[in-house]
Amino acid sequence: MSSTLPSTMKKLVVRALTANFKEAIEMQTVHLPKLKPTEVLVKNHFVGINASDINFTAGKYNPGLPPPFDAGFEAVGEVVAVGSDIPESYTGTSVAHLSNGAFSEYQAVSQARLFPLKSTDPSYLPCLVSGMTANLAFRNSGYLKPTDKVLVTAAAGGTGQFAVQLAKLAGCHVIGTCSTDEKVKFLKSIGCDHPINIKAENLNTVLKKHYPQGVDVVYESVGGETYETCVNRLAPKGRLIVIGYISGYQEPMGVANSKSARAAAALPVKLLMKSASVKGFFLFHYVDQWKQAFQEMAKLVESQQMKSAVDRGESIKQGGFNGIEEIKDAVDYLYSKKSRGKVVVCLNKSPSKL
User: Fold this and answer.
1) Does the predicted model carry a pTM greater than 0.90?
2) 3-state DSSP assignment of residue 243
């Protein structure tokens, strides 16, 4: 390993199982990892913040796995050292990766799990969890047709922005929910046909008025009453894809009250009478399709056929979020509902550009 590398690094470790991210994590200073023959050492330049980070700290994704364990899912960075089976020429390669422990200044990653990039521009980062989820959810569950009316909830978020644009590229009419007038403007800028500010308008009322025959596809990540409205407003043969339920992530059980239980009991009848479907989508069940999906999303961004909005929190903090220490603040920012696009933290202030 190069003598120019530091001997230690900072990373975030989950020390307690809780959905309260600040209480769950601890920042540690540790030695750089020793590389296996097929691993590389990546210096992470940018890390992505996901709503599901708190599901991970709460132990919902790996039940039975006791702390401590490393936090974070995704990063963009640069290869700074290689294992014995990897050519030295690979050093310096810009890469994206999706692997546990990304909330770290340096990370040992299997070469097989890397996505080589043209640069370490942060615009690539949303193409990982957020972009691949939208791509693969539509491919495996949405079956989009040009005549479809597609509803995207939390449409101005990290994955919502891609769902809107992919549906538009497929020729669909796209409806998107958001929570501020600024987000309405953002959704219009990425091609959304009918943005709905649910703080100013009632979603069910708007859908009944403008789409009395229902919507054909729903890309749903909110849960709770929003989910119930989406089920009720499905068109015959409609497809509702559940990619998350952010309204319940901070709840101990991840679900709401008895009203939701009653709605669940009525679901079979509602689906039967419309020949409709509700299907869950979890990205980690589709690992065999990641490479193709990421390459497709990256090419769309590189060719400017698709926008990849990154939010570093500069609207609330001068210079945005920087350093391992500020990841916890970025998680809070995501849950404040003030962000647009993918929330990202910079770990290296000298990134290269797309």
Assistant:
1) yes
2) coil
